[in-house]
Amino acid sequence: MKHMSLREIAAACNGVYHGDPSKAGREVSNVVIDSRKAGADSLFIAIKGARVDGHSFIPQVMEKGALCAVSEQDLGDTDYPYIRVESCEQALKDIAEHYRRSLDVKVVGISGSVGKTSTKEMIASVLSQKYNVLKTEGNFNNEIGLPLTVFNLREEHEVAVLEMGISNFGEMTRLAKIARPDICVITNIGVAHMENLGSRDGILKAKTEMLDYMDPDGVIILNGDDDKLRGFTPQNGIAPVYFGLDAALPYHAEQIESRGLRGTDAVFVTPSSSFSAHISIPGSHMVHNALAGIAVGYALGMNDGEIARGIEANVPIAGRNNLISGAHYTIIDDCYNANPASMKSSLDVLACADTRTVAILGDMFELGVKEKEMHYDTGIHAAEAGINVLICIGELSGEIARGAADACKADGQDMIIRHYASKADFFKEMPEILEENDTILVKASHSMEFPEIVDRLKQ
User: Fold this and answer.
1) Which of 17, 332, 342, 433 is at 20 to 30 A from 169, Cα to Cα?
2) What are the b/e assignments for 161-187, b being 16+ CB within 10 Å?
């Protein structure tokens, strides 16, 4: 990371430096909260987790060559320096904010109810055709993960593409204060986290907190096909740039041709041009992701050729519509997370397969008081999409099975529907249910731990 001394770090987090005064000017090599990742000259921040307290690892980390620890506890007389703070979690954020403001880097902040990660991947793929890009990895999009991503920025990076995920009011403000985005992208306003945010208007309010700390000369890029975003007027006076399928929008797509599980071809229209590109990841939602990437690319001075190459270079990541050709089945691994909109979108992707289709679906969480209704409606959608076999796992997923069964009964449709209380129950009957060459979608909320099912299917 770029030069940052212990004295500077202590000031940034309102901490008190303890130790040899001659070491206060020394610079850290990196910032870690995982003792296993500490090395020479690391700064170790002792976060208290749900299961372990980082303070217990401080001696071990210092023996490995770390330069300094950040601690909420008085460590007494030590032969290594430490910075005493009131809250290590707050110190992590304060230091990351200070570090971000010291860097000459453009930041693209991405939020939304659905599609944040796939949009982030598309935007990073586009920008990588011209710039040295750092992007959020994995699920490092919250108040712990975002600061750690910021600490990975180096002097050679020109753009950071940061995913920003929230579940309650105020979180986005704290994330934006760290990220200080130059470009803000919001994919949509759906129904995720209704339990805390109450309504789609509440979700809009929470997501648009991102704008509170953006560059006043920056760019706001919104999905113009979303009814909540299309009429949104930012209080900071920046006029949004819109993308979508509506031909009236400045960035839109025409001549969209689905290639099934092989992706989509489209002509993309910008305010000054049009060009063709192939999206290799299946799903109609990927057209919106590409349009977001185009709008960001234009905001950062890229040309059509560079942007088209970036769109075509974008490939799936594990757990996100990742198409796996197994020994016996074709697997659509989309099990990283789920909400009703993304679940329905994935069912539509599955329906494009030219073999027997199987959907293995699990519970979706944090949907609020209408969670059963939303699961039931997802089951109806599975039936309407023409899925051949529906396997539901978990308590709430019983409503998915019920919705599909009711829809099939009403339409006289033939569909195999099974509901299991647990993955273990499903595994017992899996060989009898699945057939050679099935195309299988696997999707549920993250805590359902459905990657285990993907692994079983690959075997």
Assistant:
1) 342
2) bbbbbbeeeebbebbbbbbbbbbbbbb
pTM comes to: 0.84
In the numeric block, the tokens 């569909």 are attached to 415
**C-alpha distance from residue 138 to each of 77, 132, 162, 322 (Å):** 39, 19, 11, 14
Q: How many CB atoms lie within 10 A of CB 233?
A: 8
With 0-12 / 13-18 / 19 or more C-beta atoms within 10 angstroms meaning exposed / middle / buried, residue 327 is exposed
Q: List Cα–Cα distances, 326 to 330, 332, 335, in angstroms.
A: 6, 10, 16
Asked if residue 199 lies in contact with residue 113, where contact means CB atoms within 8 angstroms, the answer is no
Q: What is the pLDDT of residues 89-131, one digit of tens each?
A: 999 999 999 999 999 999 999 999 888 999 999 999 999 999 9
Q: What is the CA radius of gyration of the chain?
A: 24
Give the ranges where 184-315 is alpha helix by DSSP (H): 194-197, 200-207, 227-230, 285-299, 304-313
CA distance 171 to 143: 8
**Span 296-325, pLDDT tens digits:** 999 999 999 999 999 999 988 777 778 898
Contacts of 141 (CB under 8 A, 6+ apart): 116, 162, 163, 164, 165
How far is Cα 6 from Cα 423, in angstroms, rounded to an integer?
A: 49
Task: DSSP for 44-69, please give it.
Answer: EE--B-SS-BGGGGHHHHHHTT-SEE
